[in-house]
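> @MW can you paste both from yesterday?
MW: sure, first one:
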Amino acid sequence: MMLDAFWVLLTRFVQRGANLLVLMMLARALTPVELGFYGYVVSTSLVLTVAFDLGLRQGAAAALGKAPERAGPLTSQLVLLWCGLAALASSAAWAMMAWGGLAEAGPAAMALAVLAIAPMLLVRMGQGIFLGTGELRRLNQSELVSRAILLVLTLLLWWRDLLDLDAALALMALSQLASAAYVLVALRRGLAWRHFGEWSAAGELLRQGWGFFGAILLMILSGRIGVWAVGWLASPAETGSYFAVLRLAEMLVEVATAVGVVVFSRGVRAGRDREAAVASAGVARLVTFVMACAALAAGAMAGPVLTVVMGDGFGHAAGALRWMLGGAVASCLVMILYPALSSRGHARSGVWLFGAAVAVNGLLALALVPPLGLDGAAMAFAGGQATAALAILFVYRRSCGLDWRELLLPRRQDFAWIGKLLRRRSGGLPRAA
């Protein structure tokens, strides 16, 4: 599992590096208000695609893990379900974008924001097939396609001084369309007209997905509710600053999310609960420890980091970044242990633990944003993520019978896989003549 996680991590580092470069260019090309609108679109799009996915990403993986011979019917019915869900998600997106004030940016911005929803939803749902079959390479490539296109075209428009809000939203939509095309091509082997009438496969997907739906939606909300809270309680400019520091802190979380993908994919196909639980705990404590070290280093240099990455206008957000980095470390633990639990039939436990995180984040935001502004929103984020981490530790400990040390304290053998990897790589190098 460690070696699989390493290669997924390496891929995600490339992706997040691309995201960071895009964010750097957007922070310099857009006004704070425009960056706030862009952040609202990105956050709302993510929440809507998770909501209208109905848990089918994880549900498809779970269904395939139990019956790999039904890949054809399950894939075909998943694409058929997407056709209806995409129309509903796009309609909801238009309403949410108008409610969030994006209409002030003009009809083109509204249309471009909505255009990205359907392909984004297809990518998310289609990745469930890759998870169920263990094709993590295809899953990684489906995300690399969109990142590569977004980075190259953003760089080109920024260099030509053509990067504005409409252009940024157009590039987001184009990158998602390209990724969706890749997913459709990758799924073509499982698509057949004869499978579109097998409604039982659709019913199985929906039954499996329903067990994941509430928890996954609340998990996304626990991290993104702050964008809406700042937009409601503060100004669009402060929303832009919040989105910027959130994206920086989330780079740590997305590393853990990448590992969680591996944990979930292996979990739905694993046979022994105890062995899988111990292995997942080892990965979680190691990754969380490494991310905590990274957070301490970034927090110590928060001011210079923000100035270099985002520009001179973001130095005031150093305190907020430190709070968010603390919350991100707590979230790392959750993003690995929850996939481990959900892959073994405990998905519904996420409803109350992520529900608690959403409630804490929302209530703290209501109390702290009016007097403290951006710092208050960051404190609310950290409080919500800490709540989720404490809850997942309690649930995992009770469900899997592990003690606190096994969940939190790295061990010497956790680092042994690095030597194994280096020996494998050096053994494969050609010898000099």
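MW: second:
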Amino acid sequence: VFMDVRKAPFKLYGLYRPEEGDADMRSLKRIWQTALCEWGSAIRSRRALVILLLYLASAVLCMNGTISVLGKMESELATVLQLPPSEETGVVSESLWKSKMFKQMVSKAVGNSLVFEDISKRHPVELLYAWFVFLCAPLLVVLVSGTRVSDDLRTGAVRYMLGRVTRLEWSLGKYFGQALMIVCALAVSALGAWAVTWFRLPGAIAAKMLLPMLEWGVRAWFYSLAWLGLALGLSHLTRSSGRATAMGILAMCLFSALPPLLGLLQSHYGWPGWVMEIEQLMPSGPKLDLWRSSFTPIASGAFHLLTLGFVYLMAGAAVFGRRDA
């Protein structure tokens, strides 16, 4: 009876088959069924609800705080410049964003003329949301998804899966299951952030924010795919959830700090230019392509990030392939 209860979720999503039928199943179908099983497990344990609420709460709180700070800055700016105070938040900042002096300051901060040319056409509130979602997405991915493999290794649930799918199919199914969950969470968080702008900003500005915020959520999802592959790849190396999370956070800090450190060493000590090409092996390398407006650099950056995610995942899966499950 206990074995039948353990097999029930796999029967529900089509993963349980008699032994003579396993050889006829197509690999892509097994990967998809593993992803569905990951979804079913998250829904039954209410982990999916927790993920949605976590993404939604972080987006709503950050957007509300950003608009509050923006409103205070506009009030102070109006006082300093002796301008008439505006009752609506976002009007003064939009005018300031179009000023030549402010554009020069932002251009130096961005450091990429092509990226600045594209983002200069966007509303500052929209860019603040984009900056927030790109900043928080890696951390949320590591904290939420980084233990999904190590948890199954620790509880022994992986042994029930490996009787029905191969190790590679199981790893890919975990990856795609988490990727689908993350894109849903980012879409919900974008809607929550837009709802805040609808209540806090003028209607004319808020009406133009919905599609751009959803668009930035999709871009951040592609950025998250590389970090998801890194987190799950590291999770293949241990059975401890705490250790998997610690390794993911450590790798995230290392990959975030290494590119500016390499740039500093190159400028001060004359290191060869090829040293900076190491950045292309990290998620921060193609991230700037996602801030462009034209399709070609966005598609190139998204494909680069997806490839990095698969490389990280396959590296961890290769190590796991030599270990006892």
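> thanks! The radius of gyration is 23 Å.
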